[in-house]
């Protein structure tokens, strides 16, 4: 029935460079690791299913990369240092080339971020990849969704909507985006979790989440957990050149607000910590962008401004969906 | 794409009685927990796939129970105290009754063993359940497969082969087992991980594994890792009444040696620790049974005795498979 012994050991143990805090890795009933003194353990889990999260055209290397990346993105949103990865891989058959490429993608990103694959399970069945990632954070310093305060500045870590636009293009919705295709597909298939930024935000951000389901949806979790509202300045939303050259302004805003899979961080910072944030992120290639502010509100509502003027667009009004329909973003 | 927010929160958060060491549970990007000082973290992962590990006739409650049980069994084999569970649940549709029963099965066993569900991911796709369980063990005291020494006594924690026999019966191979059916099906669907025993074995057992793939297969991992061989006294193999009343003696031995899914522990104990083992397990309802001894050997071979006489049956000889075929156990 179970065969942890064969596939995992063969494809995943060989390239392994193991962290010093892994006492027992792949090959026993469980892995044994050591959390640093005065640190909390952070655990995240994400599943990717064939036909839902990727399709036949997705390279196996990208699936291996992304399955790890989405988990490291969750760890980053908690302010945690990524440490250990467990892989549950369900496969219809042991396709050697696929496994070689998948494990290469998985190992590249693990190596880049310094985390070790410590175990897992391989089973026969429809292609499904579940990764559980563990990280650590100094005691009591984990970032959460619930600390946003009225007056906090609202930030995102980088351009939004690119992954969603890439998906649209592969589905032939915007064939005119040809010149940017390669770059956008990279953003969709090989997202970069904001691991360093997440750790820098400890003690600086009041609330943090990663944008996996779209800015409005994920910001909505911060607002609901923190019992506040927000105001977004649409013209401050960071957009890539590929985005602005492919879509109209309205379409681009809608895409940036609603498309998922970018794995940028969205976080809030109190006025008195803005200087600290700027110092901490001065060395980063992609600096966080301030896109608005947290407001007092009971209903977790978001309001919008465009060029300094109120822009009558709220999550509740029927026109919002309409707006999204126009932008082709409700898929 | 991802919707950790809906199903998991609704069905799994409500009954939750959370351990004190869970600082942040379900509902943020990750869970935050605290490992006790001077303890190591033990992590295990197991996947159950519909059509492979269970079928349409398996009650949802049993799937929820067993998905946790197989993981706790791995933790027990490492000598770890079970603490936290993450659930990755892939479902074709959100069937309310199924979810209710599945989550009831999952919660019952979590509650019994004192572990908390701390997070997970729900996705749409072919029914697959992956659980990652985390436990803790005093520093450096995790049990492994590799410490068995020549002269060690070989133990199993309880009757072997019942789950395999149950599977045969449901597949109509032994219709005469009718009177024992209910009990056997319970063993197959609701295995009891040997959590207390596993923790008692710290500092007592030299090597330990859980019997998920069959005694010979799993003992084989101990022998390979420890570079030793073993001798099994067939007439000491613990067999249930259901087993001895349903199968011939030969069939019963074959089943006990090769059938998986019993989730008993198999472990080795040095001569000078036998007394300690007896004291430690005196209070257990099911006491471990000594079934043989570890031998010096380069080849991880197993030899057998029956009523004190050598019984010419080794893993390598062709007759072994034949023997199993006769017993109907090669499925």
From TrEMBL, chains A, B:
Keyword check for Ribosomal protein: no
Binding-site residues, Mg(2+) 1 = 45-46, 121
Q: Any idea where the PurM-like C-terminal domain is?
A: 150-300
A Gene Ontology biological process noted in the UniProt record is:
thiamine biosynthetic process
Binding-site list for Mg(2+) 4: 29, 74
Q: Where is the PurM-like N-terminal domain?
A: 27-137
Kindly list the positions annotated as binding substrate: 53, 261, 320
Binding residues annotated for Mg(2+) 2, in chain numbering: 46, 74
Please name the pathway. Answer: Cofactor biosynthesis; thiamine diphosphate biosynthesis; thiamine diphosphate from thiamine phosphate: step 1/1
Q: Which reaction does it catalyse?
A: thiamine phosphate + ATP = thiamine diphosphate + ADP
Q: What is its EC number?
A: 2.7.4.16
Listed SUPFAM superfamilies? PurM C-terminal domain-like, PurM N-terminal domain-like
GO molecular function terms here? ATP binding; magnesium ion binding; thiamine-phosphate kinase activity
Q: Where does Mg(2+) 5 bind?
A: 213
Residues where Mg(2+) 3 binds: 29, 74, 210
The answer, when asked if Coiled coil is one of the entry's keywords, is no
- Pfam families for this protein: AIRS, AIRS_C
Q: Where does ATP bind?
A: 120-121, 145, 212
Q: What else is known?
A: Reaction mechanism of ThiL seems to utilize a direct, inline transfer of the gamma-phosphate of ATP to TMP rather than a phosphorylated enzyme intermediate.
Family per UniProt? Belongs to the thiamine-monophosphate kinase family.
In Swiss-Prot or TrEMBL terms, this protein is called: Thiamine-monophosphate kinase
**Which source organism?**
Idiomarina aquatica
